[in-house]
Amino acid sequence: MPGFCSSSDSYLDSGKIMLAVRVCAIDVGTNSVRGLVAEVNEHGQVRVLHREGNITRLGEGLSQTGVLDEQAIERTARAVEKIAAKARSLNAARYGVIATSAARNASNSGKLKDRIRELTSLETEVITGQEEARYVCEGVLRSLELAGETALLADIGGGSTELVFAPRAGREPLLTFVEIGCVGITELFLHHDPPREEELSRAIEHATRLLRNAASELPAGANELIGLGGTITTIPAILLRMAKYDGSRVHNFVLTREHVESVLHRLASMGLEKRKNVVGLERGRADIIVGGIVAIKALLAATGFQKLRVSDRGILVGVALSLWRREG
């Protein structure tokens, strides 16, 4: 299975030099905007040149209003502009901007697309949950050698969670999603700082029920659970006390139920200002991290797994590969 490479700007195969296609993939999520500039060779091998993430909270207040806030649109569009400018400085030839849960659930997502176009001349595609899950699946499968024959992939975002049953090589993955994520859980259930026990209990019960229903739509028998998304990658960063995030140490980290329980108990007992100073926790994520860990706890309960393996690669790699396959 092709994986991530760290070679020079060209790739060698039996002495033949093959030029790579340089692409820029941008993911506009409910909580953050993330970008990837990479080179992809003719075998679909990906070499990362630049990664960037900015918390813009596009989905702030969406569950109450049904619309994207004007200031959130501006923050988000500016973040896309910043990533696109960096990609242009690195001579990216193909660009793809996707928008996920918040944009597809908002009645005014056209304003977001218009503003991104004004600032960058790039078109934004608001993708469905199924399309999002397909990108996630390809991105993860390209970056992990799976230990078992099958795996269940879970991408917990700000507004939705994608579940993908990834069977043995050569078979079609099965996809589903549920509209539950760290921002939604926080806004719907966690109204006090720090959250009250009854709020946490209701949130866990609600998320577990939704995730169990979603998981029941997929085949049983996955050998392992693989998790990705900002909340999931944050927990290893906290456990390892990372003052500066290091994806190479997070990728393949095994999170146990005990890890999740201990970090949830620690962070849920703190007020927001104290959480902002936790080493390994991005300050802009401090107000929704408890809701995100609730989703992870619910995921383990709903699927019956005792642990999950963390992937630091996902939807952006999937988008990069789709750009590589695009004509011209």
Return Rg in Å: 19 Å
Helical coverage, percent range: 40-55%
Order of helices and strands: EEEEEHHEHHEHEEEHHEHHEHHHEH
Within CATH, the superfamily of the largest domain carries the name Exopolyphosphatase. Domain 2
Topology:
Layout (H helix, E strand, L loop, with lengths): L9 E4 L2 E4 L1 E8 L3 E9 L5 E10 L6 H4 L4 H20 L4 E6 L1 H5 L3 H12 L3 E3 L2 H15 L7 E6 L4 E6 L7 E5 L3 H8 L7 H19 L8 E5 L1 H10 L7 H4 L3 E3 H12 L3 H4 L13 H15 L3 E4 L4 H11 L3
Parallel strand pairs: 3-6, 6-7, 8-11, 11-13
Antiparallel strand pairs: 1-2, 3-4, 4-5, 8-9, 9-10, 12-13
Architecture overview:
- By secondary structure, the chain is an alpha/beta fold.
- The chain has 2 domains: about 120 residues, ATPase, nucleotide binding domain (Nucleotidyltransferase, domain 5); about 170 residues, Exopolyphosphatase. Domain 2 (Nucleotidyltransferase, domain 5), CATH 3.30.420.
- It has 13 helices and 13 strands.
- The strands form 3 sheets. Strands 10-9-8-11-13-12 form a 6-stranded mixed sheet, sandwiched between helices.
- β3 and β4 form a beta hairpin.
- It is globular, with a radius of gyration of 19 Å.
- The two termini are about 25 Å apart.
Question: Could you list some keywords that capture this structure?
Answer:
328 residues, alpha/beta, Nucleotidyltransferase, domain 5, 2 domains, 13 strands, disordered N terminus
